[in-house]
Amino acid sequence: MVVKQEAKLDPVWDDPDRTLGQLFMMGFDGTTVTPQIRQLIEKHHLGSILLTAKNLKSAEQTTQLVYELQKCAHDAGHPVPLLVAVDQENGGVNSLFDEIYIRQYPSAMGVAATGSTDLAYEVAKATAQEVSACGVNWIMGPCLDVLTNARNQPLGVRTSGDDPQEVSAYGVAFMKGYKEAGLVTLGKHFPSYGNLEFLGSALDVPIITESLEQLSLSALVPFRNAIRQGLDSMMVGGCAMSSAGLNVMHACLSEQVIEGLLRSDLNFDGVVVSECLEMEALSHNIGVGGGTVMAVNAGCDLVLLCRSFPVQQEALTGLKLGIDNSMISLDRAKISLRRILKLKSKCTTWEKALNPPGIDWLSTLQPSHTGLSTKAYNKSITVVRDKGRFLPLTNIIDPEEELLLLTPLVKPLAASAASKALSETANTGSPEPAVWERSASVMSGERVFRELGRSLARQRSGRVLHTSYTANGVRPVHENLINRASAIIVLTADANRNLYQQGFTKHVSMICSMQYSAGGERREKPLIVVSVSSPYDFAMDAGIGTYICTYDFTETALNSLVNVLYGEHSPTGTLPGTISQSQKLHQSRQHWLVENFNEERDANALDALLRTVVESTPLNQHSELSSASSNSFLLHNQEIIEAHFVVRNSSTHVLYGFCSTYFFKTTGTGVIGGLIVDPSRRKLSIGHSLHNRAIRTLLQREGIKRFQLGSRLPSMFLGIPTGHGSERKRLRAWFANMGWNTALSRPVCSMVARNLASWAPPDGMAKSLQSAGAQFDLVYGWEYAGPILDHIKTNNRQGLAEVYNMALADSSACGIIRAKRPEDDTLVGTVVLYNMQSNLAEFVPGIKDIGETTGGISSPVISPSVGEYSTLLQGLILLGIRCLKQQGCNACILDYMDGDGNFDGLSAMGFGVLHNFEEVSCDAATWTMVPPS
């Protein structure tokens, strides 16, 4: 590392403890100076503090708290004041809230929707002036992430959008506004939180999979431009990076990211701040002590630790050990110290730190800032569509008619990934839930939505009905209110991450579109959908005819919404980024509420759905479901975990779709054994919603090794049904879209031989069987189980063990046909033989579909060491047919056969193909969930 010659530091910094204390930024719990934070300042010389909503109750209290922290540092002999930072991003993410003195402004995306970078500058300047009045000198912004994966992002409206140049323009405008008010700035979250892949567990680090070239063209553009315009500091995230030439577990611990990408490539020489090292993924994988040393060695100047005093002590101890063990040099620490002192010189002095302007200055700012807040929100409200011309409401609803407001139960947004995780951890068993209710947002959704209902009522003489909705879907109370009301407003908040909101809204939309007038004419009931957070909820779904975006659900935002709804303000907002041009987003999928199948509630409805599917089958085709019933899907087998899902109309109890899943413990195989959608409701994404729920459920099974599309047990769908050419092509394409590698499919089929009464084996078969040198017999019951179950272990295909166990347990109607070597009695082949009275027959609908007494032969297993595979298979089937003839059967089904075209032997025996399928398998470890597009 080449170190530039710097001015000599004041001798006071010769004390290593003073120097090391400046390399930390810490938070604490409490609204006054606690003994823990006092100890950190006085004993450990802590130089920077992050205040969050849990510390801040009002502007007056904040001013007093910051003053007491600075006084504590001053009295302890700190040479320079503390850096005191807050997250104050506006929208749903504000650490400091005061109804009287602190104004609310739109989120970053809301400001971008105004189309004015000048307004962005004014909003940022006003925000910074307000927190500066309370003594804060560092603002944790701007957010410079580009939403390249907008639909799956927790950042939501915290960034300006998905266009790098637009995010850059607004980010720089915010930064300049903050600076104008005298605060130092921080860009986040380098190298980008805009396209993270989330693996699920808190212990899994979110991953950036884009290459450096891809990042440079998109995600890094706003960071690069902000650095050129004078960005003071940068937060480096705790995410992993994985692409060609780049393999990083935690960006903020990587010299390649900080010294290489940020310092060398982007020429940044400001203060680098780590993501909070209390993040569970980071602390669990590395440990805070070691992580602190790694962060400083990687190039971080400030190590952030949000709240836990023991963890903060561990970090301090770790850094001192790193110095003592020569893992870090004091010279390296002083490089960071110089940067931190330079940052402090830009924003604070002891004179300024000990004399915050406080309430007096806020009082003078209040009138102009109130006007700016109203202006910004009014300009941000965006009417994306109003096909039915339902706006303003006064055009479509009379005073005596009722208006219905339906709102979701939502939590406030968290200020950052780290504070969210920490707050949720801290909040379990918290004695003060009301504190967390405001900890990262102005107020919870429930409170602010109640106030919206009151505001709507105040603006009209007619009655406003208001109730909430949850993941339980459309309930009878909702339907009654929808029928009563003359117009409905549905609010959604990040419906792409709270999929029940998508399903609920689409269900309400369907109800509204099927309303009828007193004269029996179809009359669409006016529905207005309002996204109060991410605009992506229904931006591309033209099925929602009237769609409005507010970008946050603060009281101020919803007041502007009321003005738009009643025509008192003409909305001018536009969707930010590329979303309005539809350059990146495809047609939005509908997300239906998927529920667990309830046998008592849904069995009859499933039977009706199966009948509907069979009746819709073209005349020249034969449905696999002709004799299926709801019982055909329910195994009730202890060795198989089954979970089935439905999309249903909770009012009529009709099923629109059904999906069956099974987890076979013996092989670790998760199976989708059937996916059925009402033919009249296809292409509405019902299948997509069911499939994603099924995969998410199977991924959670302990011991999951692979996925399979198609099930031997129950033998309903052996895979993708591949009837006629066009249907095969459509289904293959659909499942390929869902993430299945259909190119690696395995053809399987069910076959049938009829007229067994007159059946005779082909000429020469008996002689051929003799040459195979095997003896065949038929056995029943558990006494023969040992060798048979050992034999079938040579084949690891899904469901084999379960089929054989079921057959062995049902000796009155099932048997096992064996092929043995005469010389040593070794089993070399087996099949299961069953008739219509067997338990197994319930799960092979085709056996009832033949229309006459039918038996079945299932699950052949031929030892891999045997060369005469087809001859042995024919021998097993030949004995099976003879046995079925003796039982009076006139037809025989082979219900799960390799369909790779080697049918000559079976065709010669009189078997024809009944149904064709393509079984698809894949490794569960490599499965990637297909995001809703």
From TrEMBL:
This is Glycoside hydrolase family 3 protein. The keyword Lipid biosynthesis does not apply. It comes from Viridothelium virens (Speckled blister lichen). Residues 644-709 form the N-acetyltransferase domain. Residues 19-343 form the Glycoside hydrolase family 3 N-terminal domain. Belongs to the glycosyl hydrolase 3 family. Gene3D superfamilies: Glycoside hydrolase family 3 C-terminal domain, Glycoside hydrolase, family 3, N-terminal domain. Keywords: Glycoprotein, Glycosidase, Hydrolase. GO terms for biological process: carbohydrate metabolic process; peptidoglycan turnover. PANTHER family: BETA-HEXOSAMINIDASE-RELATED (PTHR30480), PUTATIVE (AFU_ORTHOLOGUE AFUA_8G04060)-RELATED (PTHR30480:SF8). One of its GO terms (molecular function) is acyltransferase activity, transferring groups other than amino-acyl groups.
